[in-house]
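Tokens for chain A. Residues wanted.
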């Protein structure tokens, strides 16, 4: 961070800046006006007016800025005169010359007597008015609350003495300690409120989101500071900056020395009673209600009221809510609490605990636990902590519950060692529900490795839960291993012996259901179905709802990959009902996810799937899983919206999901959805950023459901970048995933199309890939069709469409192929309700027709492609349509006026350089030369430009003559010489 305010970045304050800019526009149109900005010290008023002044100067406005002095004997009119002097010294133009000429006369006039002051008011008013004739004038007086009376009077005098002059007055002032208008400004404010051209605005602290963005500019590598900075500053920019500076300077508590000294100096001026009030509030938790404060201090009403009033008037205490108090800033709390002696601190916390012991209501248990703990009473703290944890879970405050259970596990209470394991389990479960997957994994791993680690069935259940936590964290390999160890830890069930009991049967069902879910997540549908059927027996026998719901969810989803999709949906609907009745939000989230995914994916019921996903996301948010299951459902909805062409709605869902600050697998899902949208819209760098982040989590050992989309998107990204060979590498990596044993044909069908497309593009570019890769690709395409024949009709139709797309890509490099192949594919995709690939297919259809020299039909198809791409704002697709239209020299009215420029060579025909022979070529001859430089044959040039090979020969003859060359190599050399960045592609 820099030490000067000039170097600090300005961020946010959009509404306040627009207020000032709007006021300036109104002043220019209608005449003199004023804006007064109030607010707390350090909130950012000075930076705001500085930024406004900077932009106003850039637009031709004369900006005069002066700051009042915090001294009793400040010279009269000091802020205004100093502003004039500064502009005369550093400014340019007529205003600077005017101010320089007038300053000696102004400073020589008497300003101390009443008559002299009035004369000075008139002189300054006239001077500012004259300056405004040539350009608008903004006069800023910063810290108006410290200004001398003459300066304050000048504000009112200018508003009264000027009318149509283009003068905007801006004043900033600091609120008094109680939050009102400073006493010195009350007469001026009262006067100005009668003017309709004066606007008053309070500058509020920055919202938390904007402060976090600003923190990212100050300390980009320390996002961990955000909670502390917010707690200390509550959006006050100065306090936030000082906190960051203190941490970077080595103070882990982030309490800057300057602030510490200011607080201590202020507290020293309070009476003993007021200091007691400040100290007691600092030791409290959150806002301190008046009755609670009275009980802690054991003060009578009247006596306490006097002390509180003193602390409020001194700016230490603010009224919070309807009946409570708080210190003005978190930093103030840190300083005051930190200055308490140990005996004082323990005494205050014990007073709070005893005062709260008989109270009831939300949050009381948590406060009581805190105070007993800080007072050194662990037994009482444990009882209150357990109550607080259970209360937090009832209110679905899982992050808070996690902290309470963790504290319970660490409190040094005699005889609680046995219970500690249970506290760790509850802490891990709460952390998982809160979306803190890494903490959940760490806590449960600690429990399983501890000296009191469970064995037998209890161990199996915990390892099953650990597998779920690992899956959520994106650690697929570790999750599957944990699930296998959970099954291995199950006690052997007697073949014909007596029943093992309902509890044991329920635990067995839970472990097997967890293993089946892990296999399903790895897309091993056959193995998952087998384990789920094994778990179904004990789950139904003992009526274990969570296991039963999970098992039905696995069986229902897998049914779509057989021929019984209806039964699959019925099973999933039953699973959702059972999970809802069980009261377990995690299981319900899994079931809702599977049902929405089945509808929007294999069954291609996009509208129904989107509706299910959005309704499920709302339900999960209601149950406190807004950071986990709700995020997954929103990402799922966004992907379905992308396929049905609702890209703006998809972006909105991605934004909502990302705002929940997801982690682990959920963060990966959101990034994948966002990368897809960014790529479609043309933000290739943004897409790359998301995919690189996903690679860190869903690398070679990631879940196939995350790994495959990553590789498919990477292949697509490289295709748009014109690197089909690199795209094929990603496709080959995806085929490695497929060959690892997954059964999700719907997930890898797009991979095969990307492979076919990359192969075609590489051949067209004259760089045919290894034939073995093509054989591998076609083998998988054959298996895809075979599996599709065993699937439900909806999935079979989707898979057949992907195979049709692959066949059409082959046709692009097959001589004599049917020109109507792509039109048929486009019709199939249109019937599936997927406009983006439909537009792509129309593009390829138009290209095929143009190659067949059917220019009218080809242009019509390009027009249909452009219409679809334009509605989606699919920039890369539009650019390719425009490039094909340019090369074919056909008009496509449906293309937007502005399309991303293609990468072709353009040489100005009016180039004044007489020695550049390329200026002698026509546009078409330049296009022929450009393709020739890539090493293309006449036949390939003809195909690229949609002309006959004989026409290519005629163009080349003219090109050689104009360039004075005799062969293709020399012609390409001329192009490289005069367009160095262009030449033969290697």
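Reply:
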């Amino acid at each position: 961070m820099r030490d000067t305010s000039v170097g600090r970045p300005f961020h946010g304050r959009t509404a306040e800046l627009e207020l000032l800019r709007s006021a300036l526009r109104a002043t220019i149109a209608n005449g003199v006006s004023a804006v007064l900005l109030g607010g707390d010290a350090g909130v950012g008023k000075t930076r705001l007016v500085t930024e406004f002044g900077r932009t106003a100067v850039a637009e031709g406005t004369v900006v005069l800025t002066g700051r009042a002095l915090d001294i009793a004997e400040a010279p009269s009119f000091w802020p205004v005169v100093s502003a004039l002097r500064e502009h005369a010294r550093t400014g340019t133009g007529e205003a600077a010359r005017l101010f320089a000429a007038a300053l000696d006369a102004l400073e020589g006039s008497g300003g101390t007597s009443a008559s002299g002051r009035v004369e000075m008011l008139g002189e300054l008013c006239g001077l500012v008015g004259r300056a405004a004739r040539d350009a608008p004038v903004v006069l800023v007086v910063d810290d108006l609350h410290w200004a001398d009376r003459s300066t304050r009077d000048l504000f009112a005098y200018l508003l009264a003495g000027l009318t149509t002059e283009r003068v905007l007055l801006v004043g900033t002032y600091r609120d008094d300690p109680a939050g009102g208008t400073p006493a010195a400004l009350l007469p001026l404010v009262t006067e100005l409120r009668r003017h309709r051209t004066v606007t008053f605005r309070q500058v509020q602290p920055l919202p938390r989101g904007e402060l976090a963005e600003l923190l990212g500019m100050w300390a980009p590598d320390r996002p961990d500071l955000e909670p502390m900075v917010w707690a200390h500053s509550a959006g006050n920019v100065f306090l936030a900056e000082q906190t960051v500076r203190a941490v970077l300077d080595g103070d882990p508590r982030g309490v800057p020395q300057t602030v510490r000294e200011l607080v201590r100096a202020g507290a020293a001026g309070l009476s003993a009673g007021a200091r007691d009030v400040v100290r007691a509030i600092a030791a409290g938790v959150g806002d301190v209600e008046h009755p609670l404060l009275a009980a802690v201090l054991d003060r009578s009403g009247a006596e306490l009221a006097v002390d509180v009033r003193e602390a409020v008037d001194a700016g230490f205490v603010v009224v919070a809510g309807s009946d409570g108090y708080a210190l003005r800033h978190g930093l103030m709390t840190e300083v005051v609490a930190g200055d308490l002696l140990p005996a004082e601190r323990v005494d205050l916390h014990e007073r709070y605990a005893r005062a709260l012991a008989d109270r009831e209501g939300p949050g009381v248990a948590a406060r009581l636990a805190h105070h007993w703990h800080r007072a050194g009473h662990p037994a009482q703290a444990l009882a209150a902590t357990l109550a607080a944890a259970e209360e937090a879970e009832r209110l679905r405050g899982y992050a808070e519950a996690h902290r309470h259970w963790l504290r319970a596990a660490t409190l040094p209470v005699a005889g609680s060692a046995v219970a500690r394991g249970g506290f760790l389990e509850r802490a891990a479960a709460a952390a998982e529900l809160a979306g803190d997957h890494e903490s959940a994994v760490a806590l449960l791993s600690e429990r399983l490795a501890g000296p009191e680690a469970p064995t037998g069935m209890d161990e199996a259940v915990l390892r099953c839960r650990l597998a779920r936590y690992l899956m959520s964290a994106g650690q697929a390999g570790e999750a599957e291993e944990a699930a296998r160890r959970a099954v291995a830890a199950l006690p052997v069930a007697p073949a014909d012996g007596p029943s093992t009991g309902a509890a044991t049967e329920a635990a067995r069902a839970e472990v097997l259901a967890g293993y089946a879910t892990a296999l399903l997540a790895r897309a091993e549908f056959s193995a998952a179905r087998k384990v789920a059927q094994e778990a179904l027996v004990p789950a139904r026998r003992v009526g274990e709802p969570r296991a039963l719901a999970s098992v039905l969810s696995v069986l229902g989803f897998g049914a779509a990959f057989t021929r019984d999709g209806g039964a699959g949906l019925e099973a999933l609907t039953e699973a959702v009902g059972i999970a809802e009745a069980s009261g377990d939000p995690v299981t319900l989230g899994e079931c809702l996810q599977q049902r929405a995914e089945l509808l929007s994916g294999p069954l291609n019921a996009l509208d129904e799937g989107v509706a299910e996903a959005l309704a499920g996301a709302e339900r999960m948010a209601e149950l406190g899983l807004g950071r986990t299951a709700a995020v997954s459902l929103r990402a799922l909805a966004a992907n379905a919206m992308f396929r049905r062409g609702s890209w703006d709605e998809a972006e909105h869902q991605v934004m909502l999901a990302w705002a929940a600050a997801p982690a682990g697998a959920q963060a990966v899902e959101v990034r994948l959805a966002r990368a897809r949208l960014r790529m479609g819209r043309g933000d290739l760098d943004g897409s790359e950023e998301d995919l690189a982040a996903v690679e860190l989590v869903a690398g070679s050992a990631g879940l196939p459901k995350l790994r495959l989309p990553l590789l498919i998107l990477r292949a697509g990204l490289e295709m748009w970048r014109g690197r089909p060979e690199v795209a094929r590498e990603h496709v080959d990596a995806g085929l490695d995933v497929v060959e690892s044993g997954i059964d999700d044909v719907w997930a890898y069908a797009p991979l095969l199309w990307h492979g076919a497309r990359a192969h075609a593009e590489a051949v067209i570019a004259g760089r045919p890939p290894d034939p073995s890769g093509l054989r591998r690709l076609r083998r998988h395409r054959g298996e895809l069709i075979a599996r599709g024949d065993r699937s439900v009709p909806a999935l079979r139709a989707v898979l057949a469409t992907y195979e049709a797309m692959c066949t059409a890509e082959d046709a692009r490099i097959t001589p004599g192929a049917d020109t109507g192949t792509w039109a048929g594919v486009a019709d199939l995709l249109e019937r599936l309700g997927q406009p983006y690939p439909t537009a792509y297919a129309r593009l390829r259809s138009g290209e095929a027709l143009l190659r067949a020299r059917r220019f009218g039909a080809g242009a019509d198809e390009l027009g249909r492609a452009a219409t679809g791409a334009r509605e989606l704002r699919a920039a890369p697709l539009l650019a390719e349509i425009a490039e094909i239209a340019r090369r074919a020299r056909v008009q496509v009215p449906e293309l937007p006026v502005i399309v991303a420029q293609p990468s072709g060579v353009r040489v100005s025909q009016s180039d004044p350089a007489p020695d550049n022979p390329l200026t002698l070529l026509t546009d078409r001859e330049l296009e022929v030369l450009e393709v020739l430089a890539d090493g293309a044959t006449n036949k390939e040039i003809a195909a690229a430009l949609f002309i006959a090979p004989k026409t290519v020969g005629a163009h080349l003859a003219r090109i050689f003559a104009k360039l004075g060359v005799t062969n293709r190599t020399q012609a390409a050399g001329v192009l490289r010489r005069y367009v160095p960045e262009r030449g033969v592609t290697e």
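DSSP finds 46 helices and eight strands in the chain. Residues 502-521 form the longest helix (20 residues).
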